[in-house]
């Protein structure tokens, strides 16, 4: 009797094609599969024919042959912000570059003005539709960065809103402190003094439970290597993992720098050198590819994809959802852009938004369909895994479960 009782699960999907992502290559496909869960964790993932005889569940879903994947992990977003920058989009179409706009006082700093002007409820209301859109297209875990407050109160407000989005939507949210995103006007011409302030805010925000990781923008229009290093040292003192906006517009040695700190990820990496790739391989630092920004800025320098593959650097794919370089609200569309612009295979793109996306956040408990991992699942109106990167838009998601609970309906 005891055994029968133990086999009463919270949920069971049958008649599904599972893309388990188990193993180091391939989709890990299981035809006519079944997947059960209890208390938020997967209890069984495999062929229906081998389902334990006594298995019963409170909720049973017949997938009708459709595809079931791990919930998607969007490991790099800036989705909490005030206002928009559609005007800059128009300026760029008329020939102005992202760097020119930034140097003229627009760019990130213009979103800082709008974000500072928004109170917490306004910021939450403006950010909710973006988080909802990601969820609606299959995201179950999302990383959200600060970086448009650039003062203690503004950064705190952004991080609080990020946490609240998780609570309101039932989404898994990981927060990243990106105080070193741009120089706020009150610190103009004293970047080192601003970095002092960032290093002072970090332990306070961390003490309030608002910070899961630390990031910086290491670039000629951002912060230099020495300033980035100081922020990372402050993170290390607190035991917080680091990641970096590295080598996006130029090779500033950012990838090697973050790898030297054992960083979780180097993000963008279009201009990363061979030495940077080697350092990432040695440290196990994930390359986070952000094809939305590449597309919007009409970049032409591709990340060193062959070197990443040859040296076994794991590649993740994320939206970089932000008002300037990547107003992208679908991780599936990021997968599609990664295939089209970067020639990723659809399998690499799916691995990049599941296993490797989770790795880029330091999360080993999700990203595959395996017993013991979180029951973060998406059922798709599709049969082939390649369809996830193939269809541009179109409401492909049929249902999501986050920690075993239905979400996004
Ligand atoms: O990832 N490069 C820095 N940060 C963002 C852009 C933010 C913005 O322009 O508002 C990025 O591309
Ligand atoms: Fe970014």
From TrEMBL:
Top EC class of this enzyme: hydrolase
Top-level taxon: Bacteria
Positions of Fe(3+) binding: 76, 78, 245, 320
Major subcellular site: cytoplasm
Record-listed Zn(2+) binding positions: 76, 78, 245, 320
GO molecular function, one term: imidazolonepropionase activity
Annotated N-formimidoyl-L-glutamate binding sites: 148, 322, 324
Cited InterPro entries: Amidohydro-rel, HutI, Metal-dep_hydrolase_composite, Metal_Hydrolase
The entry's keywords: Cytoplasm, Histidine metabolism, Hydrolase, Iron, Metal-binding, Zinc
Cofactor: how and how many bound: Binds 1 zinc or iron ion per subunit.
Subcellular location: Cytoplasm
Gene3D superfamilies: Metal-dependent hydrolases (3.20.20.140), Urease, subunit C, domain 1 (2.30.40.10)
Cofactor (UniProt): Zn(2+); Fe(3+)
Family to which this protein belongs: Belongs to the metallo-dependent hydrolases superfamily. HutI family.
Protein task: Catalyzes the hydrolytic cleavage of the carbon-nitrogen bond in imidazolone-5-propanoate to yield N-formimidoyl-L-glutamate. It is the third step in the universal histidine degradation pathway.
HAMAP family assigned: HutI
Annotated protein name in UniProt: Imidazolonepropionase
Lineage: Bacteria, Pseudomonadati, Pseudomonadota, Gammaproteobacteria, Lysobacterales
């Amino acid at each position: 009797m005891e055994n029968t009782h133990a086999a009463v699960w919270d949920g069971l999907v049958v008649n599904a094609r599972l893309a388990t992502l188990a193993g180091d290559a391939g989709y890990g496909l299981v035809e006519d599969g079944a997947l059960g869960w209890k208390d938020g964790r997967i209890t069984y993932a495999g062929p229906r024919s081998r389902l334990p005889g006594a298995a019963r569940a409170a909720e049973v879903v017949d997938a009708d042959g459709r595809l079931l994947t791990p919930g998607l992990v969007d490991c790099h977003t800036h989705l909490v912000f005030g206002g928009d920058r559609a005007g800059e989009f128009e300026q760029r179409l008329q020939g102005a570059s992202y760097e020119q706009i930034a140097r003229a006082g627009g760019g990130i700093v213009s979103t800082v003005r709008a974000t500072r002007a928004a109170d917490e409820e306004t910021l939450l209301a403006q950010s909710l539709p973006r988080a909802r859109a990601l969820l609606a297209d299959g995201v179950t875990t999302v990383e959200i960065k600060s970086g448009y407050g650039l003062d203690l109160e503004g950064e705190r407000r952004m991080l609080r809103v990020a946490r609240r989005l998780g609570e309101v939507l039932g989404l898994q949210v990981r927060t990243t402190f990106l105080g070193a995103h741009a120089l706020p006007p009150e610190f103009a011409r004293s970047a080192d003094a601003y970095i002092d302030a960032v290093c002072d805010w970090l332990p306070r925000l961390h003490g309030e439970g608002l910070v899961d990781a630390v990031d910086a923008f290491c670039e000629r229009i951002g912060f230099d290597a020495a300033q980035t290093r100081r922020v990372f040292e402050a993170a290390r003192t607190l035991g917080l993992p680091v990641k970096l906006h590295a080598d996006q517009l130029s090779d500033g040695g950012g990838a090697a720098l973050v790898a030297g700190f054992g960083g979780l990820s180097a993000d963008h990496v279009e201009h990363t050198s061979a030495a940077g790739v080697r350092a990432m391989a040695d440290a196990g630092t994930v390359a986070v590819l952000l094809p939305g920004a590449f597309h919007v800025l009409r970049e032409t320098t591709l990340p060193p994809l062959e070197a990443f593959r040859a040296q076994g650097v794991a590649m993740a794919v994320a939206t970089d959802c932000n008002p300037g370089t990547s107003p992208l609200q679908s991780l599936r569309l990021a997968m599609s852009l990664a295939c089209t612009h970067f020639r990723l295979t659809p399998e690499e793109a799916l691995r990049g938004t599941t296993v490797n996306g989770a790795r880029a956040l330091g999360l080993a408990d999700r990203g595959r369909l395996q017993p013991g991992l979180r029951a973060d699942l998406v059922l798709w109106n599709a049969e082939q895994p390649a369809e996830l990167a193939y269809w541009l838009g179109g409401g492909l998601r049929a249902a999501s479960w986050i920690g075993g609970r239905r979400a996004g309906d």
